[in-house]
Every structure is written in C-alpha cells, then in structure tokens.
Amino acid sequence: MITRTITRPRNINDILVRLHNVKPAGPDQWQADCPCVGHGTPEKHLHVTNTPGKALIKCHPGPHSYADICRAIGFETLTYSIGTMTQSAKRIIRTHDYKDVNGNLLYQVVRYEPKEFKYRHSDGQGGWIWNLHGIEPVLYHLDEIIISKLYGETVYVCEGERDADNAFIYFGSTGTCNPFGAGKWKESYNEVLTDCNVTIIPDNDLPGKQHALLVFTNLKNRAKSITIFQVPPQYKDFTEYLDGRAYSMSNPDGMNVSTASTEDVAKMLGIEKENPGQDSIQDNINIPIFNRHQNAENNRKTFQNRDKPMTDSFQNADNRKRPNYSVSFDNVLRDAGKMSRRDIALSIGLQHTSDTFRQIVKRRLDDGLIRPWHGRHDILEWVNRDYKVLTLTDYRKQANLSITLPLNLNKYLNVPAGSVIGVAGYTSAGKTSFLLEICELNVNSQDLPVYYWFNEMSEDRMLLRLEDYPLLVKELGNRFKAVKQTDFEFYDVIEPDAINVIDYLDLDGEGENQQVYMIGAVIKKLQRKLGKGIVIFALQKQKEKDMGYGGVYSAKLSNLYLSLDTVSQGDISMLGKCKIVKAKDWGDVNPVGLYCNYYTGGKHGKIMSDNLWRRDKSNE
Fold it and tell me: Which of 146, 218, 430, 508 is the most exposed place for a label (fewest CB within 10 A)?
C-alpha cells in the first residue's frame, strides 16, 4: 500500500488550522504566531494573505523564510492543490453561539460555504481557538431553555441550528439542538429537558428520523410532554418547509407521543425495525380489559397479605412498638412537596425496595393522596387538596392596607394585602433611601410591623444610615426590625403578616454569572408566603432601562413596579427620576408612564421631592 503525503494545502483553511492564535487582520488577511523557532516571543509575527490559487505568508520582522514556514506547518508550497488552484477559500456564511445558563458565550459553530462546519471558542483576547478542547458541549440556546422550562413554554428540538432559530421565529418559543449533528445526543442533555414540554422536529431523511427517535427514547419518562411534528415529505427539513412563509404557526400540527412506545414512534417515523422478528409492544396488548383489572386487584391483595407476616413479627419482637411509617411518610412528602422514593424511604428509616415501603406507596397511590411527578414513577408528589372558599365575612374584613408610599404615590393607587412591589434602581440612584423612607412612613401608622431585610450593607453601615430616620431608631428592635441576611433565603424567613422590605434581591453568582433567569421564581415564592402583609423588593438595573435584572420576569407578579435612575450627580446630593413602569389597583388615572423627580439630602442621602408627577410627552 502506497501512502501519499499531502504536500500542498487545498485552501486557506488548511493553513490556518495549523497555526496558533489566528486573528483576522483585514479582508482575507490574518495574523498568527510564527511556527518557527527563533523569536523571543512568537506572538503575531506571522502575516497570512489569501489570494486566488495560493496563500502569501511572511514572518515579520523576520528572520524566517517562506520555505522555513512551509516546512514548519508541513507543506512544500502554499500553492493550492490541483482542482482548487483557481478557487478562493471557503467563506463563513453563519455562526451560531452556544451559551451557558447565564447567557455567556461558550463556543461557536461556524458554517462555511461550500458546506462545512467547524467549532471555535474565544481565546480571551479577541481571537479564536479552533477546537473545543476542555469545553463541555451544551444544548443550543441553553439559557433560553431554562426560562422556557420555568414558565412551561414548549421547547422545539431540531437537528440543526438553523431549524432551531426558525422554530423561535415561527413558533415564538425556544428552539434547540445538540452540537455535532444527528446521532450525537448526550445523556447530560436529558437533565436540561426534564419536565419540559418538548416538540421534536426531525429532518426528512433516515439519519434525521433516527435522531428524532434517539431524542424521544432519551426524553421519554423525563419530559412533561413529547410531541413529534413531521414536515411534509416533499421538504428536506423544517427550514425548507417554512421558507417563504410570513405568518406565525403557533399551533403546529403534531402527534403527542408522551405515552407511546419506542416501537410505535419508530413506525410513525417510517423507520424499519432493527429486529424484524421482534413484535411491537403495541401488538402484544391484547389482554381483555376485565382481565387486566382482575389481575390488578389480585396483585393488590397479594401485596397486602405478603406484608402481614413481616408486620406481625416486627410488633412482637422484644415487645417493641412498631414505628408509624405511614404517618412519617405523609409528613415527609407533604413538607417536601415532591421527593424521590429512595430519599423518602431513607428519611423514615426504610429501604425503598422493602415490602413495607411499597405497601405504603401503593395505598396512597390508590387513595389519590400521592401521584408520580410528571409521569416519573421514581419521584412522588403530594397531592395538595387544601383550599379556602371566600365568605361574606372575608368580604367585610377586606380592605386596602393603610400603607404610605414615598413621592405621594398613594394618590394614584391602592395597596391590597398580599401585594408585591418592585423597585429597580441604577447604582447610587437612592434605592436604600427609598426603601428606608417606606419603613419610616409606616412604622407607626398601622398595625403591621416593619421588617427590613438587607444583604449588601454591613450592620454598622446600616446603623449609620438610620441617623436620617429618627422614628426607625426609636422603634429599632420593636416595631422596626432590621435583619442582615446570612445563609438563609428571604422567602424562607419573611413574615406573612408584616411589611417586608428587601434590600435587595441578589441571586447566585456575581456579575454576568448571576442566575437572573430565576428572579421570577424567587418573587413567586415571596408572594406565596404572604398573608395580610406585603413585600417590597429592590433590584439592581442598568442605566435608563425600565426593568431590573431578570427583565419582564421581575415585574410579572408585581402590583407596582418602579424604576429609579440618576439624572445628575453632585458632590453631596443627587437628582433622580422615579418612573412608574407597572401599576395595578389604580384609581381614576392610569399612572403607568408617569415620572417624578427627587433628590437626596441629609447626612446619608434621605429622599426629598416636590411630589409632582408628570408624563413624558416625548414617549407618546
């Protein structure tokens, strides 16, 4: 066998992939580290230019020759090989960003014309490293999947990035795919899509259909629901099917296969059975219904009788009293809401495979007290049937709280019990002063105590800020309670029947790594904890943006949502602007869009204002 050595590149890409730290330097020009030995430092000594038929390459300022560089990268010449000598290099027509859960770029898929895919990640200095060494592959649009999962939106699983992008355009919900193409699904992707509503959109070829079956097999019993949407057979993929359409298809026709067998889905996709002699599971379901019910009843009786000897022996051994595992089971699962069978069993001192534990589970399933969580039989969920019917007595007791808000906001709206108020503020816009003003206005004006939960300031700094608020100092530890956050979550400790002021909501991570997509879930937990009280929370935000970190999700459950910005900053004072972004329970005038100027004074920046609200005419 004769092995032919490649002595010439096919195109410019064959050269660039053999160089390090390649960076664009202009049209068809690049800079890279020189591959030859002899520089004090090799950085950016090499200049590469692509021309029709060959590449021009030069070591600047030297000393390496054209021949030295060719040998260093494994070519005899940089004239392109026969058949491509007159062709220009492949051009990039698209790039697709793969990001982590917080929206930070991990790597890119680069699509060339003629068709070719390559992968690259940032070198941290404005250039690219053309491999994925040390980088864990993730699903496309991972950060958007997390948000869709949180709010129960459908996630469309496609074969390629272009189809996934089009799924978002046409369906208005997140589209995704795995990197590296069909058949490259990884176990780690299953966890991301667990409990999601998933629609699989296969390509119309055998590898595409096999990939769809692979995805279905992995997500079955994990996803909340699975639908398969097949494009008509005359189109090769989803993008070609949608090409030229200008309308939304928010309700695509598809088949719900959540409870289907793998064999049935393969048959639906038109995939031949790998084992022709093996019957479909569906073909074997020919037992009469009454027989199945009879078998279930027999199994139930056998199960109960089998457990009795074990129970009797336990009660008689050493005259010990048998622990009430049933009560313990109920208490553990009721408190947790949902929990795996294994963890429940460990919590009450049983093996999850024991007859006693199985009997407890079966009885509660039969009684409807518990159920599998989203179809997953390894996780159980407590069925909460507690509810309250409103009565005439509740109606007579109902009244708006006598909460007083700064800047004469009460002129425009009421504050019912259970309200959530959001204050999104730019750095140094007076968030803390605004919140402390709320505390002082209400500490002696109504029956509810005031809790000020803070996490950014030290306790000493907090006490200094109180110098501008003598009423709070007087009631400190009594009607006004200031609490520094330690290792608890605010939604675990807020008082249901109090004015809870949170300065401020800070999620896991720092800077760009903050999990801001979770802000909606945190606010929902705060709201559910409330009784007669309210929650007023602060958030950081960018300058001149209406919403705080978390975007619309931070305002979704708010009765009132305010935005604080700095207009001008002086040496000892600051002029600010408060805008009403969202308001419920308003009176005669809808206040959304109104703004009021304020300034900070006093020793530590107390809020002061003429309380005049205006409407920005430039936005109308």
Answer: 508
Question: Got the DSSP string for 177-196?
Answer: --TTSTT---HHHHHHHTT-
SS3 388: coil
**Dihedral sign computed on CA atoms, order 462, 464, 469, 471:** positive
Burial class (CB in 10 A: 0-12, 13-18, 19+), 340: middle
Q: What confidence tens digit (pLDDT) does each residue in 560-584 have?
A: 999 999 998 877 778 999 999 999 8
Q: Are residues 329 and 374 in the same domain?
A: yes
Q: What is the tally of structural domains in the chain?
A: 5
Q: Is residue 388 part of a domain?
A: no
Do residues 270 and 296 share a domain?
Answer: no
Q: Could you tell me if 2 and 95 lie in one domain? A: no
Residues spanned by the domain of 504:
401-619
Residues 325 and 445 in one domain: no
Q: Are residues 436 and 369 in the same domain?
A: no
Residue that finishes a domain, picked among 108, 129, 150: 129
Q: CATH number of the domain that 529 lies in? A: 3.40.50.300
Mean pLDDT by 10 residues, the chain (620 residues): 55 82 78 78 75 83 80 84 49 87 90 86 86 92 88 89 83 86 92 93 93 94 92 87 51 75 90 47 30 37 37 40 77 84 85 79 88 81 80 62 88 88 92 94 90 92 91 94 86 92 76 60 87 92 87 88 91 87 88 92 79 74
**What is the rounded CA–CA span in Å between residue 105 and residue 436?**
39
259 and 201 housed in the same domain: yes
Residues 282-329 have pLDDT tens digits of 333 232 323 333 333 443 343 343 333 333 333 443 444 446 888 889
Strand partners, 128: 122
Closest CA to 616 of 599, 594, 596: 594
Give CA separation, 353 vs 147, 320, 349, 378, 564, in Å: 36, 23, 12, 12, 57
Question: In CATH, what number is assigned to the domain containing residue 212?
Answer: 3.40.1360.10
Residue 153, classified by CB atoms within 10 Å of its CB into exposed (0-12), middle (13-18) or buried (19+), is: middle
Residues 451 and 502 both lie in one domain = yes
Q: What whole-number distance in Å separates Cα of residue 145 and Cα of residue 223? A: 13
Q: Which helix (H) or strand (E) holds 154?
A: strand 154-157
* Residue 183 within any structural domain of the chain: yes
Residues 10 and 96 reside in one and the same domain: no
Cα(423)–Cα(548) distance, rounded to whole angstroms? Answer: 8
Q: Residue 548: exposed, middle, or buried by beta-carbon count in 10 A (0-12, 13-18, 19+)? A: buried
User: For 546, what's the count of Cα atoms within 13 Å in the CB-facing half-sphere?
Assistant: 13
Verify cis geometry, omega within 30 degrees of 0, for the bond prior to 63.
Answer: yes
Structure-token pair, residue 526:
């705060």
pTM greater than 0.85 (yes/no): no
| SS3 state of residue 543 | coil
Q: Widest CA span of the chain, in angstroms?
A: 96
